[in-house]
Amino acid sequence: MMKRGAIIVFEGIDRCGKSTQVQLLHDVLQKSRSVELMRFPNRQTPIGQKINSYLTDKAVQLDDHVIHLLFSANRWEARNQMLETIQSGKSIIVDRYAYSGVSFSAAKGLDLDWCKDPDRGLPAPDVVIYLQLSIEEAQKRGNYGEERYETVEFQRKVKDLYENKMKDPSWKVVNASQKPEDLHNDIRSIVESVIQDVEHTPLNTLTI
Ligand code: TMP
Ligand code: MG
Questions:
Q1: DSSP state string for 18-59
Q2: How confident is the model over 190-206, as pLDDT tens digits?
Q3: What is the fold of 7-198?
Q4: Helix (H) or strand (E) holding 196
Q5: Which of 5, 43, 142, 182 would staple 52 via disulfide (CB 3.0–4.6 Å)?
Q6: Mutate to test the pocket of ligand 1, among 39, 94, 100 (most ligand atoms within 8 A of CB)
Q7: What pLDDT score was predicted for residue 143?
Q8: What residue's CA is closest to ligand 1, atom 4?
Q9: Is the pLDDT confidence value at 145 over 90?
């Protein structure tokens, strides 16, 4: 039987070190395995360009429900490519996914179930690696405030919403306040075993 790839999702508050770790993991795994990197929002597509303008330009106004649906649509437009990649045996490392969608929109006060609905049915991650970091430490890492959502009060709400999901069996919480090399080692051992464990299992769809 053909081996399938794994979907490995990374989540965390802004400035938790996620993008650095995702890149490092990709560069290291690439030497021995078939992997690719995806990032949401994908700012390259027409929908992604609209999202980017909303995030970077505070003068751009969009209803909270509308931007939520655009973030979700930006994942749906990647769905076929994700399925093809997984079925070809390649694993995907994903920088943010539906849990960002739910946590950031629900932090604005939108109904939690309403926030979950649009993403139901997307390919489900085989593991969600949550980089846990205190708001105080994230804030010290600098450049806070460059994009929409990067305020301490808002990130606190996002963090609480994420952490309601932490008991889910597919979630692995890692300590993001460690040295980057140590964090990378923790992440790598989780990922190596997930890739092996799921090779012959069917891919699920997201229920959130
Ligand atoms: P980034 O910093 O990882 O590029 O993500 C940009 C911002 O968009 C970040 O503050 C998280 C937020 N976001 C959402 O609000 N909803 C989503 O669905 C995603 C993927 C990100
Ligand atoms: Mg950011």
A1: HHHHHHHHHHHHTTTS-EEEEESS-TTSHHHHHHHHHHH-TT
A2: 999 999 999 999 999 99
A3: Rossmann fold (3.40.50)
A4: helix 180-198
A5: 43
A6: 100
A7: 75
A8: 41
A9: no
Q: Locate tokens 């490092």: which residue? A: 24
Residue 75: both structure tokens together? 């994942």
* C-beta 99 within 6 A of ligand 1: no
CA distances in angstroms from 166 to 37, 102, 140, listed in the order given: 23, 14, 24
* Residue type at 171 in one-letter notation: W
Tokens 């994009």 belong to which residue?
A: 147
162 lines ligand 1 (CB under 6 A): no
The C-alpha atoms of residue 106 and residue 95 are separated, in whole angstroms, by 20
How far is CA 38 from each of CA 63, 79, 81, rounded to the nearest angstrom?
26, 11, 10
Residue 144, pLDDT above cutoff 80: no
Give the C-alpha separation, 30 to 24, whole Å.
Answer: 10
Tokens of 107: 């932090």
Residues 8/97, Cβ–Cβ less than 8 Å: no
Helix (H) or strand (E) run with residue 191 in it:
helix 180-198
Q: SS3 of 14, please?
A: coil
pLDDT score, position 57: 96
Tokens read off for 149: 């959502």
41 Cβ below 6 A of ligand 1: yes
Q: What is the pTM of this model?
A: 0.97
The secondary structure of 127-170 as a DSSP string is EEEEEE--HHHHHHTS-TTSSTT-SHHHHHHHHHHHHTTTTSTT
Task: Give the residue carrying structure tokens 């996002």.
Answer: 158
